[in-house]
Amino acid sequence: MPSESEPDDPVGGAEASAERARVDERRAGYWDPTASGRHQISRPIAIDGLRAERARIELAPRVVRRGATYYDDSYHVVDAAARQLASIFTLEQLVMATVALRVHMRRGREHLGRKKELQERWTVLAHRLMKLRAEERHLALREQRIAEEHASLAGAEAERPGKAELLALEESEVAQARQAWRDESRRAWEAWSRLEAEEGALLAGAPGLEQTEDLRQPYILLLVAARRSAPRSVAAAMHTLVDALQRPLSRTDQMLLEIAFRRCIRAGSSEDERDLEKWEHALLAAAEREFAAEFPWARPYLGSG
């Protein structure tokens, strides 16, 4: 009779264990591609002040395939996103989301620029170290030849006039070159240490925006209304939303999302608004001041241009 700790059916028990492992794996990768591969689904994001208890926004890929041809469908992607966003967010939230998205994009662009500049400095330093390695091999050969000349001179029966003086002169020259090589090598490795420190600081302060590829399948953004005794500010809520989009969306996808946000903002203007651009600029400027008050680190990335 099998014990309680052992399954009656070993095969069935193994299958059940494998099924549990598959379920755990799906849960761990909930925000990764689904089992069908048709969509990508985000974690549920709690947003304060959401119009509905739950919301589902589908962000479509801008490149679509029709037959054997690929088309840029950016216009319809923006239009579909704008319709969904306008039904879920208030005008204040849309304006603040636009500001938060711009801040993240500018911060990401600055990070990528600094990363590129650091890579160029690494390349220059690598060439410098390769040159030092070649010089070190050349000096080692000269030092070895001088040592052999000394040994030959010591074992010679008759001393050659001026040979010892020439050898001493060359030995002094090689010693100076060796010291210069040591100094240059020390400076090069000090530069290596500085670059490592700069790279560590850059990675520590990375905004999470790398070279993400454009969407290849729809991305489902799941939003839920936050239940807090003290709701967060609009700036904090929209920062949370935009920050969650940094991993799945490429820079191009984020640019399209900004256009969708701005389309919703303009659609929210009154019919008698004469200068739409000036009205929108004033809204964004006020939202930027509020965002900067909430997140002082964002000040360098603000500017409603």
Word description of this protein:
This protein has helices at residues 10-28, 74-88, 91-155, 163-204, 234-244, 251-267, 276-294; strands at 40-41, 45-47, 54-59, 63-66, 69-72, 219-225. With 305 residues, the chain is an alpha/beta fold. Helices cover 62% and strands 9% of the residues. The protein has two domains: 42-112 and 220-301, no CATH class; 113-204. The chain is elongated. The longest helix has 65 residues, at 91-155. Helix 2 (74-88) packs across helix 6, helix 3 (91-155) packs across helix 5 and helix 3 packs across helix 7.
> What is the general shape?
elongated
Domain module tally: 2
Give the strand tally.
6
What percentage of the residues does DSSP assign to strands (E)?
A: 5-15%
Task: Calculate Rg over CA atoms.
Answer: 33 Å
User: What is the helix tally?
Assistant: 7
The structural class is alpha/beta
Weakly predicted, low-confidence segments:
1-11, 20-36
> What's the story with the biggest beta sheet?
4 strands, mixed
Order of helices and strands: HEEEEEHHHEHHH
Q: Let me know the average pLDDT.
A: 81
Helix percentage:
55-70%
N- to C-terminal separation?
A: 78 Å
List the helices and strands and how they pair.
Blueprint (H helix, E strand, L loop, with lengths): L9 H19 L11 E2 L3 E3 L6 E6 L3 E4 L2 E4 L1 H15 L2 H65 L7 H42 L14 E7 L8 H11 L6 H17 L8 H19 L11
Parallel strand pairs: 1-6, 2-6
Antiparallel strand pairs: 3-6, 4-5
